[in-house]
């Protein structure tokens, strides 16, 4: 088998267009494939595949998780301009949204770590917020409320002090649909995230109401909402 691989394949995988010659241009349609059926059958044989599984902990390779962790690693460690840091942060949000859409589970630990790192490079928030809003985002919870990261707020909110939730509530619903479209394009967000902007805003409001109403004086929360509403109008 080794002789066959060396003489006929020169490896296990190739880019789909490489057989056309070194001058072949890669495109979005290009993909990685087996160099030959010999390589495919060898790797997929039960004996070899068991060896692969034993050495990878029987975990399937998840490219989106690897991309997400890679972008987070860049955001945490790579020196760069504000623009570069903002790009890495936005990419982390993009992959978190893609993971949530595919797995139907919010990657809380990943976003928590992103938030801790963003506390060091807090200028990224200002780069992503529309200038005309004239607001400040102080932490990742603020960011999540402003950009309707509902699953994160719903899960994380039950572990946070009420004061933190009330403070972040000032940003609830401030983005309009045009501002949202501009921001979501920068995140490279999956289409499902943009499906119904107004419904997402309403869902975030329901989540915040539920969190703030837990075991509390509802009339106090109603007074706070009215006060916030008056502040937005002025």
UniProtKB/TrEMBL annotation:
Q: What is this protein called?
A: DUF7791 domain-containing protein
Alphabetical list of InterPro entries matching this protein:
DUF7791 (IPR056693)
Q: Which domain of life is it from?
A: Eukaryota
**Residues in DUF7791 domain copies:** 1-83
Q: One of this protein's Pfam families, by short name?
A: DUF7791
Annotated source species: Alternaria alternata
């Amino acid at each position: 088998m080794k002789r066959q691989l060396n003489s006929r394949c020169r490896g296990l995988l190739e880019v789909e267009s490489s057989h056309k010659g070194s001058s072949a241009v890669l495109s979005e349609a290009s993909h990685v494939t087996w160099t030959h059926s010999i390589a495919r059958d060898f790797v997929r044989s039960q004996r070899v595949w068991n060896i692969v599984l034993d050495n990878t902990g029987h975990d399937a390779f998840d490219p989106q998780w690897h991309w997400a962790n890679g972008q987070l690693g860049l955001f945490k460690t790579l020196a760069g301009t504000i623009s570069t840091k903002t790009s890495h942060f936005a990419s982390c949000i993009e992959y978190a949204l893609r993971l949530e859409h595919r797995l139907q589970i919010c990657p809380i630990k990943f976003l928590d770590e992103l938030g801790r790192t963003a506390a060091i490079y807090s200028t990224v928030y200002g780069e992503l917020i529309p200038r005309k809003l004239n607001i400040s985002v102080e932490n990742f919870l603020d960011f999540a409320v402003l950009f309707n990261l509902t699953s994160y707020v719903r899960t994380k909110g039950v572990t946070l002090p009420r004061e933190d939730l009330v403070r972040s509530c000032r940003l609830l619903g401030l983005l309009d649909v045009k501002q949202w479209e501009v921001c979501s394009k920068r995140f490279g967000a999956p289409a499902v995230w943009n499906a119904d902007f107004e419904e997402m805003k309403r869902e975030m409001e329901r989540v915040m109401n539920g969190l703030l109403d837990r075991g509390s004086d509802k009339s106090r929360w109603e007074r706070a909402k009215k006060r916030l509403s008056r502040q937005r109008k002025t």
